[in-house]
Amino acid sequence: MKADDRLRLIKLIHVARRELGMDRETYGLMLAGMKGLEGATSTADLSLPNLKLVLEQLKSKGFKVRPNKKPARPLANDPQAQKIRSLWLSLHEMGVVRDPSETALAKYVFSMTKVQALQWLTAGQASHVIETLKQWMGRVQQ
């Protein structure tokens, strides 16, 4: 379990370094300047307790540990959902839809159908969404 903890901390430290905008040189200087690390300049040289010290140092510089996001629901993969997604992305490429994400698409679908996920749409609801997206695209292309 210690090896798993060590890898988790190393990954977290690298996320913190990236989020704080530290380049390798700055990060190495921070490590070299910390007491108790015996001049180490890389996480590979550090023990588990020392990795914890480094993480605390990064937290003091403003890094906030965020919990992992909840696992994503698998995307709907039926032909109607694929068509909806395709039209949505086409509208994004045309510059009409700002946010091409699945979350934004789900919000759009919810505003029309009051159904929160593509996989829960009935065939009729999915057809309605497809037709609405086609009409939207037609208006933009004129």
Q: Can you characterise this structure?
A:
- This protein is mainly alpha-helical and 142 residues long.
- It folds into two domains: 2-60, no CATH class; 79-141, no CATH class.
- Helices cover 61% and strands 0% of the residues.
- The protein has helices at 2-19, 24-33, 48-60, 79-93, 102-113, 123-141.
- The radius of gyration is 24 Å and the shape is elongated.
- The model has no long low-confidence stretch (mean pLDDT 88).
List keywords for this structure.
142 residues, mainly alpha, 0% strand
According to DSSP, the number of beta strands is 0
Report the major sheet.
Answer: none
Overall pLDDT score: 88
Category by helix and strand content: mainly alpha
General shape: elongated
* Cα gyration radius (Å): 24 Å
Alpha plus pi helix count: 6
Low-pLDDT ranges: none
Distance between the termini: 62 Å
Write the H/E string, N to C.
HHHHHH
Query: Which percent range describes the beta-strand content?
Result: under 5%
The helix fraction, in percent, is: 55-70%
Number of domains: 2
Write the layout of secondary structure elements.
Elements (H helix, E strand, L loop, with lengths): L1 H18 L4 H10 L14 H13 L18 H15 L8 H12 L9 H19 L1
Helix pairs in contact: 1-3, 4-6
